[in-house]
Known about the structure:
Elements: E1 2-7, H1 15-24, E2 28-31, H2 42-54, E3 60-65, H3 69-75, E4 83-85, H4 89-97, E5 103-107, H5 113-125, H6 132-147
Parallel strand pairs: 1-2, 1-3, 3-5, 4-5
Helix pairs in contact: 1-5, 2-3, 4-5
The structure holds D-ribose.
The site of D-ribose (RB5) has 8 residues, from helix 3.
Amino acid sequence: MKIAIGCDHGGIVLKPAVKNVLEANKIEIIDMGCFDSQSVDYPDLALKVAEAVSRGEADKGIILCGTGIGISIAANKVKGIRAAVCHDLFTAQMCAQHNDANVLSMGGRVIDEDLAAKMVQIWLDTPFEGGRHVGRVAKISQIENKYFK
Length: 149
Ligand code: RB5
């Protein structure tokens, strides 16, 4: 499994903990930046990760900004991306279980490294439940197909 990671200066604080979890799970990491605390624009990092996932170069993505909000909004503009902003273990689990979220988004100014690490682990460990959720996720794709020309 390959996971692409992208962050801005607001999310970089979580990156070491996130990478530790991925390494512990023997997951190949594609680190798309940023690499220091200099101010950058989160849509640029969102696009890199989202395109890597959308093209199949990465199986999933993890994106980090100050709140997790801006970078997820941007990532969700890319076809095939279901990026979920999560703040706790429950949402990290449910976005995998019910929404088949292929990108996990977290905020470096919202949660700490310990929680982020646990959220990544539960997101990785939780399979998509399928069943009644298949049709709902398919309806998300239908919306994309209606508006992505
Ligand atoms: C950057 O200051 C901040 O706006 C960004 O990290 C993010 O929180 C946006 O949603």
